[in-house]
Amino acid sequence: MSQIKTEDMEVENPTVEMEEDEIVQEIDVYLSQQLAQHLYLFQYPIRTHNFGKNTGPTQARIKPKSQIFELDIPLETNAPTYNREKGEELGLGVNDDPFKTILDEKMGTKQTKTSLMNKQTLSSSFVPAQTNYMVGAFRNGALYMSPVRGAVQFRPSLKYLDKIDEKIKAANKKVIDEENKEVQTEEVRAKAIQVQVRNADSNQTAALRKSTLVQLQRQAEEEPWIRLQYFDEESNEAYYIYEKMFSGKKEPLVCKTTAGEFIDRISAFNTQL
User: Fold this and answer.
1) What would the pLDDT profile of 120-132 be if each residue is shown by its tens digit?
2) CA-based diameter of the chain, in Å?
3) 125, 70 contact by CB (below 8 A)
4) Based on the number of CB atoms within 10 Å of its own CB, is 71 exposed (0-12), middle (13-18) or buried (19 or more)?
5) Which of 67, 99, 187, 249 could form a disulfide with 167 if both were Cys (CB 3.0 to 4.6 A apart)?
6) What start-end ranges are recorded for coiled-coil regions in this protein (predicted)?
7) Closest residue by Cα to residue 32 from 158, 185, 143, 152
8) Per-residue pLDDT at 168
9) The pTM is what?
10) Strands 40-43 and 28-31
11) DSSP string covering 179-248
12) For residue range 209-255, what is the model confidence (pLDDT) as tens digits?
């Protein structure tokens, strides 16, 4: 028995003995590697929880080496909340039609029907892994686990604005070139120079970091897109992939650490977090 003394009273605090939890059920756990290189966790921070049900993407694509995804989500242009005026304005960014100028009207080029922005493209950003994620499924009293290769978050892409800007610049250049066929003009753009004082090591480190980021960005831009097919969760194709989560051949795993080493590794990992 332990005691706690105060000026006015003495309180006895009995020592509580903890009992071991009862084992309710033992479950066999199997590790399946059939989908290890293909499973990704998709996150939609600004979408509702039922996103994708019956309104999935019309197109999907991936850059495997860069692990970049894009999804084209259809927009309901007939919905009462759809702004058709804005949709026509932004529709130029979702097609390859050139921006019409006054020169096209003089040359008799017919104005094509204005396209509506009928889709929204979601682009992925890679989420740095804080731990190893896995997907599990129960069958016949056993738990089958499949590793997740990575987690990505999807947000709206604004590439259509860049495309509109490029078309407008191209149209303006076309007009200027036509009006100044005999006059060559040269535009001088002033560039602001920012002076910073750094030591040699920091300059080399910054230059190396910048060159690495530029190289990675260039590689990602140059890597071609690969078209993907999207299947709803209730489709036969989705069921076929789901079946691959279950191991066909069962082999026992060999433990390479003792219980003490395993606990030490977990403790070190929690300390880093």
Assistant:
1) 899 998 888 777 8
2) 105
3) no
4) buried
5) 99
6) 161-196
7) 143
8) 75
9) 0.63
10) unpaired
11) HTSS-----------------HHHHHHHHHHHHHHHHHHHHHHHSPPEEE----TTSHHHHHHHHTTS-S
12) 666 667 767 877 889 999 999 888 888 999 999 999 887 777 777 88
Q: Are strands 68-74 and 59-63 parallel, antiparallel or unpaired?
A: antiparallel
How far apart, in whole angstroms, are the C-alpha atoms of residue 67 and residue 220? 9
Class of residue 117 by CB neighbours under 10 A (exposed 0-12, middle 13-18, buried 19+): buried
Tokens coding 75:
């927009």
Contact 144, 136 (CB under 8 A): yes
Cβ atoms of residues 42 and 154 within 8 Å: yes
**Amino acid occupying residue 237:** E
DSSP per-residue string spanning the chain: -EEEE-SS-EEEEPPPPPPPPP-----EEEE--TTTTT-EEEE-TTS-TTTTSS---SEEEEETTTTEEEEEEE--TTSTT--HHHHHHHGGGGS-PPPP-HHHHHTTPPPPPPPP--EEEEEEEEEPPSS--EEEEEETTEEEEEE--EEEEEEE--HHHHHHHHHHHHHHHHHHHHHTSS-----------------HHHHHHHHHHHHHHHHHHHHHHHSPPEEE----TTSHHHHHHHHTTS-SS--PPPP-S-HHHHHHHHHHHHHH-
The C-alpha atoms of residue 140 and residue 28 are separated, in whole angstroms, by 10
Rounded to whole angstroms, how far apart are CA atoms 32 and 249? 9
Residues 192-199, mean pLDDT to the nearest whole number:
52
Query: What does the chain come to in residues?
Result: 273
